[in-house]
Structure formats: structure tokens, C-alpha cells
Amino acid sequence: MIIMDNDKTLKTGTTTLGIVAKDCVVIAAEKKATIGYMVDSKVAKKVYQLDDHIGLTIAGSVGDAMAVVRILKAQFKLYKLDRGPISIRAASSLLSNILHGNKHFPYYNQFIIAGFDSRGPQVYCLDPVGGTSHMDKFYSTGSGSPFAYGVLEGDFKKNMTSDQAIGLAVKALKSAVGRDIASGGDGFSIVVINADGYKQLTDEEIKKHN
Question: Fewer CB atoms inside 10 A, N or C side of the chain?
């Protein structure tokens, strides 16, 4: 979430991440939202389903992010009517164009867009003005990302199973929550996207990996 302090300094606070596994992608986030030194919510939503095979994580301004989510959902539906389900690469390009087209009045966000299509599991990250990177391993955003990266860099392995990737996501988020004051809340949001589609894990399923 983005806030302004008395000196008009831009600040962000959250931890989101995306992991490429053998047959899926895992995207995840903690649930704490803050306004200055006050906890605004302990159950903030930071992971969104955009289509049956695509998910998005948000870091930054909640209002800006909600506008982007609404635009993408509408555009993906229109695309599906004309051409079928949008590819993950095309989805990231569309988001990049939206962000770049508004660079003079930017959306104050950093996004991870991820999913599964004929090219397999994919994760893309985008900055507020549309800069895009295709990640073949993992990516993390927000103020807790340095702590998450410490775990991801050390424990990531190529061709991980979905269970291994979920376990790694939980471990990385717990590291961020333990050290980043702006990350926390009541549990985590974790999504697995594979050939069968988009699946939000229940709290019980997540607890198995604690």
C-alpha cells in the first residue's frame, strides 16, 4: 500500500512474490495494509484472479491497483470473445501498454502477472511505467522483498513440484513478515496456476506447509 507522510515522501509496504515451478506458477502475498504507523487491515487482498489461467499480485496504491484490475478483467473478456484465452505474454504486454500510456500520471504500483498457457508456467514483473521482465525463476515486490529474496535465492531449485514451490513461498513470506514492519496480517494468500486453472489455497492447505 502507498501512503504519504508529512514530508510528502512516497512509501510502500507489502510483500508479494511469484515462483516458476515445473508444472505451475505460485503467486503469493501477506495481508497487512498500513496507513503510516497504523494497521489499516490485517486481511488486505493483494492477489487477484484475472482469468481462468492468469493471476496478478499488487504492491503500491490500492486505488490504482483496483483500477488496473478492472481494466484487465474487461480487456481479457473482450479478447476471449474475439480470439480465445489471452496468452500470458500478451497479457503482460497489454498491462505494459496501459502503464506506459499513463506514465505522466502513473499508476503507483508494481505488479507480478503470472499464469499457465501453451508455453507453460510464466511469471512477468512490471514497474509503474510499464517496464517488463520475464522471470524464469522467481520475483518479489514490496518493502519486504529483500527479506523474501534471501530465502528465494537460497532455496529455489529448478523444476520444483507445486508442493515444494508452495513451501518456498510460505518460507519466504514468513521471513519478510518477521523482519519487515509493513508486512504481516492474518495469514497469507497463495494461488497455484497450472494446466487445470487457477486455484486459491485455503488456510488449512497453507498451514500444511508451515
Answer: C
